[in-house]
């Protein structure tokens, strides 16, 4: 496949590059094998033999988004019961919904199909998923994502403790056996495919400390190390959760995860809202990445994630929707919320409110806000790096898998803004500018998204 037009990506945190009139070629396995300006000698010689797909003026290619934290079964009740504190909400809504999918495979299939369609609609090409307890339901999730063509990392939940007696694994050993067997079954399917088509992988998923005994955590740490499997969980998320762990276990989340070898470069921890800079530095040393879920944090966490401080100490961070703790599946919203929350933090720092509230940050002279360009990085390359995707993922470089979305901001024929955008001056003479991109970032919506590819394959919404 050969494509010619404008490309946009974030090579590093805070940097947005507009590559105007580039020629990009994708090989038969879905990797970019040529990338240069259309007038470059190599591009010209390629163009002598093949006609490219033309991305018209006003449209551009952008890497697909990465969602680092989404509970697939909870998609069923997105936007429900968010008045409750976390531990009550889990018991009242999350566990019930997950249990119901574990007993109704047809319902699971239809929920997961709709979820895949919505992810595609919103430009999410890679997603780290929490599923349910039962292996079969997670195999349905894995199959549906594979059929949809989405890069998906699927976690069968490990829980040998629960506030809901009917939604728990029968013993620690049974839980460990089930985790091993799910991962093996998932990997067996992948093994039958060529390497570049292995878009779905299993993930070791201790739900969070309150649902996992120390023995289970230790066993999952060993299993992950033995098979080199990814790990995901929730850490230091909410007051009630933290209190629960301290009173039941006498140690905090991070120590428990650390002593079970669950903080590794293969790990993504959601939230981490209660980690202060010294602990964030400790986390960075383990190589663990964080899924920043600003909307869900606003409901359940009572305080924001220290995003700037985490980035400064070298924690790899990406964004998560946390469906259904967060009600929006749109990573564009997570980007906007991450900026909004960081600006509130910065405002509070300037006003000295942090001191008044007794929350002394270590770096009081540091700007805490992030901007739209940094958020766009987190949603694309930052997320890809947090997920350890193949080299160059989340950006446009030779050798990277071609995971891209086509965004239209204005109509090339009329100069009219499209989707959520309006222009009162014809944008065509200037073409695509940073100003136009910022406008799209703020008010663009799914109407602006025209096409999407993962590993070079077009993927469609249905
Ligand atoms: N902690 C443990 N389980 C969950 C969950 O389902 N959602 C959120 N937001 N936090 C959790
Ligand atoms: Fe969550």
UniProtKB/TrEMBL annotation:
Task: Give the residues annotated as coiled coil.
Answer: none
Q: Which InterPro entries match?
A: Amidohydro-rel (IPR006680), Metal-dep_hydrolase_composite (IPR011059), Metal_Hydrolase (IPR032466), Metallo-dep_hydrolases (IPR051607)
| Cofactor(s) needed by this chain | Zn(2+)
Q: Name one GO cellular component term.
A: cytosol
Q: Amidohydrolase-related domain spans which residues? A: 60-407
> What does the UniProt keyword field contain?
Hydrolase, Metal-binding, Zinc
From the UniProt record, give one GO term of the biological process aspect. guanine metabolic process
Q: Does the keyword Cytoplasm apply?
A: no
GO MF annotation list: guanine deaminase activity; zinc ion binding
| Listed name of the protein | Metallo-dependent hydrolase
High-level lineage: Eukaryota, Fungi, Dikarya, Basidiomycota, Agaricomycotina
